Amino acid sequence: MSTTPVPLVIDQLIDDRRTRIIVCCGSGGVGKTTIAAAVGLRAAERGRHVVVLTVDPARRLAQSMGLTSLDNTPRPVTGIRTGGSRRPADEAGQAHGGSLHAMMLDMKRTFDEIVESHADPDRAAQILANPFYQSLSSSFAGTQEYMAMEKLGQLRRADEWDLIVVDTPPSRSALDFLDAPQRLGKFLDGRLLRLLVAPAKLGGRTGLRVLNAGFGMVTGVVTKIIGSQLLRDVQTFVSAMDTMFGGFRERAEYTYRLLRAPGTSFLVIAAPEQDALREASYFVERLERDGMPLAGLILNRVHRSPAARLSAARSLAAAETLQGLDDSESSALGINALRLHAERMRQVESERRLAVRFTAAHPFVPVAQIPAQPDDVHDLNGLRVIGAAFTGE
Ligand SMILES: Nc1ncnc2c1ncn2[C@@H]1O[C@H](COP(=O)(O)OP(=O)(O)OP(=O)(O)O)[C@@H](O)[C@H]1O
Ligand SMILES: [Mg+2]
User: What is the CA radius of gyration of the chain?
Assistant: First the structure.
């Protein structure tokens, strides 16, 4: 059983012109947004026309990429460089052939746009004003994931970029991203909703009176549970959306196919911690089962030690010895340093063990390691430092 992973060389992935979509996924807080931005910047600086679709970037990072408002439109990122040149890019985000655009996903706006493009203006207005629609479009679990997919589909169809880098929403589970379109599709043409709408549609037809009474009873119960106003909202909403059901499913299927297409690659990101790696394992298995193209695992925020040859045990032993010898201030400093070093070495060792365990379970999944930076990553230079680890060395 091999415990040395195949190296994941992200530069190879981004330099390969056949790569058209890179999806960065992983559980909450592991660095998806940071890695997506770093991949986008590096690819642009290596000559590709890139758009990065981010979800909820930290404010300072967003600002450094020129993202000041949630407007659902890709904006040029200024200040990119290429080929070792320090010459900043011009206004349009162009730099020696490469270019970078970035956008923040506005979930509600994306949803509204779909409605507007699928329904005539009156009906669209009716749907947009519907309270049930309003809460669905801004709070339904999975809506954000669905909309990220939807936006990806739109960007791909626009065909203006040769590489689309997608960040995924801060879900509890990385799997939510893959399940969302189906879940939302199922919900929108689900049985419960059909049942709720049924009385409105069947009402008045004599032959169906008995059946209607049955539905009426069901609706009666449901009304008690969810309240009559909400039920009326749902009924109007679903009637209005009826013409769009096919549209939603079709779009979800289109995007799902896109994710399985040859030009797509998934990067699964994890912190070198037990929970994040367990989540990454699930994700890797799921991608495999669904026939989705996994490029590899990125272990982000990996710790290293500047004095790796001094083990935790020897470092602690030295601290003990020193403590017995003298109690001067300088010696106290040394003792502290030795203890901190021991702690760091334990962390390094624990991260290494977790990485080995992952590779033992998934020997064919390539792995890249990104060192933990001393500070948060919030500007283009910080992203470049992250990107420097994409060489696979
Ligand atoms: N290699 C790194 N070294 C140091 N800090 C990092 C590194 N990678 C990411 N960070 C920092 O960790 C924090 C979380 O990163 P990020 O926002 O990219 O995670 P995320 O997976 O997108 O989170 P969410 O699930 O909330 O969307 C940020 O403050 C970021 O600057
Ligand atoms: Mg994020």
Answer: 26
Phi, psi of 323 (to 5 degrees): -65, -40
Q: Which ligand is nearest to the CA of 53?
A: 2
The answer to whether 169 and 140 are in contact (CB under 8 A) is no
Within a 10 A sphere around the Cβ of 158, how many other Cβ atoms?
A: 11
Say yes or no to pLDDT of 392 above 60: yes
Q: With a cut of 80, say whether residue 102 has pLDDT above it.
A: yes
Q: Which tokens sit at 127?
A: 């749907």
Give the atom of ligand 1 at the shortest distance from the alpha carbon of 58. Answer: 17
Work out the mean pLDDT of the chain and round it to a whole number.
80
Output the CA–CA distances (angstroms, integers) from residue 41 to 45, 72, 197, 249, in the order listed.
Answer: 6, 19, 49, 33
Rounded to whole angstroms, how far apart are CA atoms 11 and 34? 16
Enter the pTM of the model. 0.80
* Ligand 1 atom closest to the CA of 372, numbered from 1: 3
Which has the higher per-residue pLDDT, 317 or 208?
317
Q: How many CB atoms lie within 10 A of CB 225?
A: 9
The identity of residue 181, as a single letter, is P
The ligand 1 atom nearest the CA atom of 57: 17
| Residues within a 6 A CB radius of ligand 1 | 28-34, 56, 58, 170, 300-301, 370, 372-373, 376-377, 386
Strand-pair partners of 102: 52, 75
